[in-house]
Amino acid sequence: MSVYNKVMHLIAKFRHLRYRLVNQPVHENGKIKVTYLCPDAVRASGGTKVIYAHTSIINTYFTDIAEAQIFHAKNPKFRCHWHFENLKFKDNYIFDNNHELYIVHEMWAVREAAILANKGINYGIFVQNGYLINRKTHFEKAKVAYENARIILCVSQDIYDCLVYLFPHAKDRIKRLHISVDAELFKPAITKQNVITYMPRKLKKHAELVLFFLAAHLPKNWRIEAIDKMGPAEVATKLGESKIFMSFSELEGLGLPPIEAALAGNLVVGYTGQGGKEYWHAPLFEEIANGDIRGFSQAVLNAIQRLDNGEIDVQQCSDARSRLAQQYHAELERQDLMELTQMLTQELQSQMISR
Questions:
Q1: Non-local CB neighbours of 354 within 8 Å, separated by 6+ positions
Q2: What is the CATH number of domain 195-327?
Q3: pTM higher than 0.85, yes or no?
């Protein structure tokens, strides 16, 4: 066993010793407690934002039937820098099966499921990227983890399809949740600039190549700006001012930056990351085959030409943005979470969530 594997084994073993199961009496009007396992991300990711957002929504709108809390298992005192109302945090490793369901994310699902199953703790799995299910595991272990989960949550059609393909016997327990994008935050600026934006965090080599290929032909009155290490408000401002957004999405569960860019009035050119296929439609989006660097750069230049020549149908783009905003509206997210909490509460009351 390598040094790394020995260290990880010790960490898992230590957590195994800390987890503890209790079964408090079920009360007729008892609430379901949904506990989300959350990574200790210093640079909080979109995945942690969704966990914080769902916790806030449940604790704001559905307090009569449910309570949600976030559990940073590595360090229960850790907090991500997402500012949401009505957040609650779990500070211990004690789980109550008669009132609580522990939701673990896909990156740690297999490891955590083995510990939780051994302890008899009820768990679900929250998958925000169908292409991370195999992380540090193999299929047979993943199959056991997912098929023993009380519920499997996901946030896009692509993830849902991946889960059903991999674990067909668990299909009845797979639930799609919508996530929302704030169209009031991500909106076009009153005055747009001849700016092309992109985020350099993923597929850095692809981005560098596209920039290199564009350099030979980019009009002098246009410029390219990277969006990196910015807060949500600053990102929204930059996207609102730019006209074109280059997407270097890798294998994504959904991919929010292209949605945000489109709502902010950009033409989006680039990779769908697979998960983006559910919204990647003209006239706002143009798909480029992954790795087609010349095609990517030429599509950006074509978009510049259409914008400079006034060939963009402004009303058509505005209508498309309205449809996109409705597709990822906060009300859909709330409706899905209401259905989820109602379903879990019904299981609690019928004692279907039990030892």
A1: 97, 98
A2: 3.40.50.2000
A3: yes
